[in-house]
């Protein structure tokens, strides 16, 4: 197993670099770079994409006086922005001792090729230096840490509740397969799966958060305004009071897949020969179910926990966060993409990609932990 883990770890770096290469160069092809965004805002045009839709000739990460958003802005200012954001550099004549700028006659602006910018960026990222956001004057690491509580709350509790409800329900449905209980519960979870999360979130707000009916839960935020003044117990209660509706809205559709996966896995195991042999030996149904079937049937369910948590955690629903006024990683990623905030986009992509690859290895270890008969080393 040690050799298998080492091989997987050795593939992490080239895989991560491949992910970054694809996303980096695709992003450069999209019009409306950060220079365009700043120029459009300073000209009072709000969003550079309106200019692009109007037919302006733009490129993803360069700026010139031909941009609609740049008209009227000093060229020196745009040059300084390009250098500040790492898209260009000033090359000065030998012997020049002043401060490099577009105003200095001895200096000229030289664009930095995309390949060189990518190499420079990856050099910083491999030392976990992700730089600062273009528009927030805060480091990418601090920005992610600031948004983390919301994503942890939604991801952790949604995953735990889904497992705590779906696994017992799936086992019960497998034991009573074909009964009325199995039929009506299947109908309920299929209906829940068909309901869009954002529509259910709005329904929860209207019914329980001061809409047309009652106001049992707060309308927005993760904590109350006086949270710092509350006692420890009151803080815990206030926290769960605030996340009750967002978590419910985010996990409404997750029950179906996990419940049916558990049920089908148990049914498949219960039909195997070793179960019939165990029953023939006189073992009780409970001993057969939880002593023999459970380990084999739960292999695929339990081993998939790291991957499921990662998908819920980093795939925070932008719509759920927006509806409940939660400022998490979902909104951060959306705003960074719209604003072309490259340090945030690529920094979070690098970190989340690295975590995803490591979690893939942990998932394999979970398989071995649940069922020691699995031997990835022997398979290799």
Briefly, what is this?
It contains 18 helices and two strands. With about 375 residues, it is mainly α.
Fold blueprint:
Layout: H1 2-29, H2 34-42, H3 48-53, H4 75-84, E1 88-92, E2 107-111, H5 114-125, H6 140-175, H7 180-194, H8 197-208, H9 232-251, H10 254-270, H11 273-280, H12 285-297, H13 299-303, H14 305-314, H15 318-323, H16 329-339, H17 342-370, H18 376-379
Instruction: Bin the helical content.
Output: 55-70%
Structural class: mainly alpha
Number of strands: 2
State the CATH architecture of the largest domain.
Answer: Orthogonal Bundle
Q: Beta-strand percentage?
A: under 5%
**Major sheet attributes:** 2 strands, antiparallel
CATH superfamily of the largest domain: MetI-like
Describe the oligomeric state of these chains in a short phrase.
Answer: single chain
Distance between the termini: 10 Å
